[in-house]
């Protein structure tokens, strides 16, 4: 593996911990801060919303800042946010800490991706995007299941202190091994938003948003689902998250290889179609200890398999604005997480049955599949829609 890519993956791993670990300890946070499960779930929602807005906005505002320095300042702010979460005496302070870590985390992840695709040959772009995605999905493998066990022994607050310490270690590694990164010419935010007027590009971002919305309608409430349908304790819940995490890590690589070999078009349709089916059968599979792990693994793998194909597709259809589209796609991902986690809380509040979340989520993923079909059916992006600095666009494969 390219050493620079490894460093960037370490950074995304740290960021992924603080966003995803909340899902595994929602019941404990709700009890400790005296709020409902649905209210605690909004900690996922606010993180995702701030992340989505901050990604392209902060990139535009910091366009003249040397990228390594921006990386380190972002990680320092991220550390401060994690410490604030550790100290938080009430829900409101924890809510603010989520906003701080989301804003700084958005810069860390977006910079990781945009830099990574520049340090490898074009034929390995999808694969390296998969590796960067593994940085986040790996945090599920180590962070969420271990977090469930640690909070049982030491409480949920210790998790955020540990993340702050890990971020400081990552800062040292990046400070020592990552060379200064020159600032490139950037487009104004208004010009970036104008690129979304093209229906082929906009519908591609909707694929990501809707798939993650459907996913998080269920995944954000996986712990109460396991408690209510399978009567699992903290130990077995951590095992479930570990299996899901292993699947997610493999999904990032599977998605990258699939996209390189089958092409981004076919990969998008395969991932979204099978993902909807896996979510639909999930509640039924919970009745069998033999079938559930299989469905869980497929669900977990596909949750991270779309990113490589989607990012490659955006590079193919809009090469001149590829950095911008990658940033927007991560924003679409976070908006999807925000919508899914918020909508999942509403479903639970109104139905009282978390199993319904899986079927509602599957329906949302079907809409993602339809958006993929629509995007693929649109003509290639014309030069006038994506041209930057006088370059000639490359046609989609």
- What is the chain-wise order of helices and strands? HHHHHHHHHHHHHHHH
Pick out the low-confidence regions: 384-397
Beta-strand percent range: under 5%
Main beta sheet strand tally, sense and closure: none
Task: Estimate nothing, just give the exact number of structural domains.
Answer: 1
Task: Bin the helical content.
Answer: over 70%
| Cα-based radius of gyration, to the nearest Å | 20 Å
Q: Could you state the CATH homologous superfamily?
A: MFS general substrate transporter like domains
**CATH fold topology:** Growth Hormone, Chain: A
Total DSSP E strands = 0
Class in CATH? Mainly Alpha
Q: Give the structural class.
A: mainly alpha
Q: Based on the structure given, which CATH architecture is correct?
A: Up-down Bundle
- Distance N terminus to C terminus? 27 Å
Provide structural commentary.
The protein is an all-alpha fold. It has one domain: MFS general substrate transporter like domains (Growth Hormone, Chain: A, Up-down Bundle), CATH 1.20.1250.20. It has 16 helices and no strands. The longest helix is centred in the middle third of the chain and has 30 residues, at 125-154. It is globular. The relative contact order is 0.16.
């Amino acid at each position: 593996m390219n050493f620079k890519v490894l460093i960037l993956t370490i950074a995304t791993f740290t960021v992924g911990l603080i966003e995803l670990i909340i899902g595994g300890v929602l019941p404990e946070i709700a009890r400790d801060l005296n709020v409902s499960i649905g209210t605690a779930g909004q900690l996922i929602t606010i993180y995702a919303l701030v992340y989505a807005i901050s990604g392209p906005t902060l990139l535009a505002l910091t366009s003249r800042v040397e990228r390594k320095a921006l990386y380190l300042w972002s990680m320092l702010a991220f550390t401060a946010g994690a410490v604030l979460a550790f100290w938080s005496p009430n829900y409101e302070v924890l809510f603010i800490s989520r906003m701080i870590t989301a804003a700084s985390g958005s810069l860390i992840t977006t910079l990781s991706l945009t830099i990574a695709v520049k340090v490898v040959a074009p034929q390995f772009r999808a694969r390296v995007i998969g590796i960067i995605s593994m940085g986040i999905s790996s945090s599920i493998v180590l962070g969420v299941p271990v977090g469930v066990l640690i909070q049982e022994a030491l409480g949920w607050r210790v998790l955020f202190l540990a993340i702050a310490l890990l971020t400081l270690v990552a800062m040292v590694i990046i400070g020592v091994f990552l060379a200064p990164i020159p600032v490139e010419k950037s487009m104004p935010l208004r010009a970036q938003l104008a690129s979304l007027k093209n229906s082929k590009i906009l519908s591609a971002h909707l694929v990501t948003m809707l798939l993650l919305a459907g996913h998080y309608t269920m995944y954000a409430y996986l712990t109460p689902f396991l408690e209510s349908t399978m009567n699992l304790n903290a130990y077995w819940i951590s095992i479930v998250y570990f299996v899901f995490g292993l699947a997610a890590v493999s999904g990032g690589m599977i998605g990258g290889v699939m996209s390189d070999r089958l092409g981004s078009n076919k990969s998008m349709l395969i991932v979204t179609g099978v993902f909807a089916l896996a979510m639909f059968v999930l509640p039924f599979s919970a009745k069998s200890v033999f079938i559930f792990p299989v469905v869980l693994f497929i669900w977990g793998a596909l949750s991270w398999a779309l990113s490589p194909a989607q990012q490659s597709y955006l590079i193919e259809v809009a090469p001149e604005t590829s950095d911008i589209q990658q940033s927007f796609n991560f924003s679409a991902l976070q908006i999807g997480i925000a919508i899914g986690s918020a909508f999942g809380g509403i479903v639970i509040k109104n139905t009282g049955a978390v199993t319904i979340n899986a079927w509602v989520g599957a329906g949302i993923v079907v809409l993602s599949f339809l958006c993929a079909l629509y995007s693929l059916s649109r003509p290639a992006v014309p030069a006038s829609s994506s041209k930057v600095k006088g370059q000639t666009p490359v046609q989609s494969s």
